[in-house]
């Protein structure tokens, strides 16, 4: 598997998790890196769920978006790559 294929597989698994599907993926790495990855993944999932709720207020969406932005910045600082989801 090429690195491009691996990244595609990785992004597909992340998107599936964000949408609420079970992926069976297990993360390995330092506890700090795993924690940062979980934070950005959970923030993305939380924003996705909020956007799919009926009658959600704009200020709630802004709050969730801000959390995702902060988690994305931590992800970039740790991994040197932008969070694309």
What does this structure look like?
This protein is mainly alpha-helical and 85 residues long. The protein has one domain (3-19, 27-79). 69% of the residues lie in helices and 0% in strands. The chain is built from 3 helices and no strands. It has helices at 3-18, 31-51, 58-79. Helix 2 (31-51) packs antiparallel against helix 3. It is globular and about 45 Å long. The model has no long low-confidence stretch (mean pLDDT 94).
**Unreliable residue stretches:** none
Question: How many structural units, i.e. domains?
Answer: 1
Shape: globular
DSSP, total strands:
0
Q: Report the sheet with the most strands, covering strand number, pairing sense and barrel closure.
A: none
Chain-averaged pLDDT: 94
Quote the distance from N terminus to C terminus. Answer: 22 Å
Task: Give the gist of this structure.
The protein has 85 residues and is an all-alpha fold. It has helices at residues 3-18, 31-51, 58-79.
List keywords for this structure.
mainly alpha; 3 helices
Topology, pairings included?
Layout: H1 3-18, H2 31-51, H3 58-79
């Amino acid at each position: 598997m090429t690195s491009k294929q691996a990244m595609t597989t990785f992004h597909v698994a992340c998107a599936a998790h964000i949408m609420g599907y079970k992926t069976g993926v297990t993360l390995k790495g330092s506890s700090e890196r795993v924690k940062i990855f979980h934070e950005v993944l959970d923030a993305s999932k939380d924003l996705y769920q909020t956007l799919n709720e009926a009658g959600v207020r704009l200020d709630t969406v802004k709050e969730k978006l801000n959390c995702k932005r902060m988690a994305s910045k931590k992800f970039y600082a740790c991994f040197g790559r932008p969070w694309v989801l």
